[in-house]
Amino acid sequence: MSNKWPHLDYLSWRETCxxxxxxxxVAGKYxxxxxxxxxxxxxATFYVTPLGLTxxxxxxGPGIEILFNLRDHMVEGTCGDGRxxxxxxxxxxxxxxxxxxVQLVSELGGTPAFDGQPNEVPDPVxxxxxxxxxxxxxxAVQRYHHACMAVDRVFKTFRTSFLGKSSPVHLFWGALDLAxxxxxxxxxxxxxxxxxxxxxxxxxxxxxREVSSAGFWPGGGGIDYPAxxxxxxxxxxxxxxxxxxxxxxxxxxxxxxxxxxxxxxxxADDGDEALLAFLVSTYEAAADLGGWDRDxxxxxxxxxxxxxxxxxxxxxxxxxxxDVKVEREDGPSKGRYWTLVDGIEAEMTYSRAGDKLxxxxxxxxxxxxxxxxxxxxLVRQAVxxxxxxxxxxxxxxxxxxxxIDRHPEWQDVLxxx
Length: 417
Description:
Mean pLDDT: 92
Order of helices and strands: HEEEEEHHEEHEEEEHHHEEEEHEH
Oligomer: single chain
Number of strands: 16
Helix content: 25-40%
Strand order of the largest sheet: 6-7-8-9-11-10
Number of helices: 9
Strand content: 15-25%
């Protein structure tokens, strides 16, 4: 299968996908029961390999690793004393899979004691009591694995451009999402919980710090197609209105996150580039609107055999107000603030609503100037001009609104209702 981004059709294999999801939960529950807690449930996840999905070593018995070999359609266990055990993946029931898995762990010298109830699925049935026959589409499983390898590669590339706390690229078996998460370093408000079949304390611990998180679903959970997602917790003001890339990405109101259909990546001229654009643009929206310290957190994308210098700055210097010359073009009904940095133009446009009121409606800072505070200087100049001219501002542009919200000393120019 040479295509890095294979065709995926969730509806054609959703019953197999549902079965694989539950099988991973069985093995994931075993890992969870025998591995010390790691922040944000990272002790429970699986990882993509060239053969499938692995638990990594579980500290039970002589040390046990579980591999879902999705190329040969086997569940394979190995342990520290050299023993191996396996059984085939195929048409079966969850109860039969559960029994085979318990036997495999026992043969490897482990203790097959773990919670037997699924999480994050509707109408959960205990594993040992789920006797419904489940299909197994071998070709679809292999295509899903190839997609996971492609996603894993791009997610890991994206991860290299962040110096702050970041999760591994890992698969959460609760919602069957392959995910990577960045952290601002600040404490977040207490999460409300309420995730079906997931204890509130687990959700609250998972979101106890501010995050920008992205991931990949094969389908289900509210959408009937494979897709990428990106969200921020807590969600900053204006996040849902942010301009993100590529064009196929959109805000999903019910899910409160950005969605990019997998098909848009699979059919793109450069799928890696399309997905990376989604990851970068949604992170930048979350970080800029949330007031993250990107000067401290961001760095250049990693390259093979190229060591990042210690104390490396952003690729280009962050600019102060004295470094940026902001120009203004003011017309009878519309106007704009603009600046030219290294030959690249950034602008913020506005509309007039009478002699004493302007409405900031859009800010456009090209990618090459991101992270250099150019947009902040455009907003600052508008605030200073409004004070001088005795006019008020309505910031409809999400970026401008977020900047003024973040600077109480600028809020004297806002129109008061």
